[in-house]
Amino acid sequence: MYKIDFHGDDYAISINNSKRMIELIDSGRLNSISIIANMGCFDECMKLLLDKWDSFENKPLVSVHINLIDGYQISQTDSEVIQDNSWGNLFLRSFFPFFEKKAYKKALSAEISAQIMRVYDSIKDLKDDNGQPVSLRLDSHVHTHMIPLVFDAMTDALESTDMSKKVTYIRNSCEPVRVFFETPGIKGTFSYVNLIKNLILNILGKRVLRYCRSHNIDTGKLWGLMLSGDMDRERIDILLPKMSKYAKENDQYLEVLCHPGIVLENEKRPEYGKDDLNCFFSKNRDAEYDMIMNHTDIY
Predict the structure, then answer these.
(1) Residue 27 within a domain
(2) How far is Cα 154 from Cα 105, in angstroms, rounded to an integer?
C-alpha cells in the first residue's frame, strides 16, 4: 500500500516537546506520532493530546514508542526505578551464550506490556477520521524492538495481554539505501556509522517482516536512519521525489521519521539517560520541526 507518512517520535518526553508536535498535527503537517509511556510527564502530555483530539481536522495515527533505554520502569511496583540501558547492551544480550535469557526476556516482556497498556488505556476511546476506534501501532525508542531478544519479548507481551489482535502496524526499521548514493548532493552528507546501523537493521528486519506477514499486521519501510537526528528540509526536499518514486514502484508504506519536538533546559528530568540528555535538547530538532512544517508536498 503506497503512502508517505510524516511521523514524529517521542511524544510525551516533555510538555514543550509535546506542544510542538500538537502544533504540527493541528497544521496538518504530521500524519502520525509515537508516544513514550514511561516519562514523568506522561499524564500531562496525554491530557494535552486528548483535549485537542476532536479539533484535529486530520487525526494522527498513534504508536506506542516502547522505551527500554531510560525513563521509569513502570512494570515495577516501585515507580521510581529508572532504566539505564543501551541498544548495544540489549543486542549483545541476544547473542551472548552464557547469559540467562529466559528471565531477562520475561522482565522485558513485563515492561513492554506495561507500556503498551498504559498508552492503550489512554487512547482506547479515541476515534479516527472514519469514526472508528484509533488503531494500535508499535515501534520503539532507538529501534530496540528490532533486536531479536526484545522482539521476542514484545511478541510475548502482545500474546499475554491479548493485544496481538488489536495491533495493526509494527515498524520495520529498514530504509532504502541505494537512493542516498544515487542522488546528487546527498552522497557524502551522511554518517557511515548510520549506514552500518542501517545494514544491521535490514538484516534484523527479515524477522519482523515474517512475523507481520504471518499475523496479518501492516508494516513498511522507514526513512530516517541515514540522516538520523538531522532530517533537514534541504536534503529531504532533494530526496523526497526519489523516495516517493521508490515507494510507488514497490507499493510501499514509507514512514518519514523525525523528532520535531524539543525539550527545554528547564524541563530536564532525572529519567533522561545520558544519550537522551544530548538528543532531546539538540538544535537539530528545530531543523526537523522546520522540515515537517515546510517540506515540499509530494504524495
Answers:
(1) yes
(2) 9
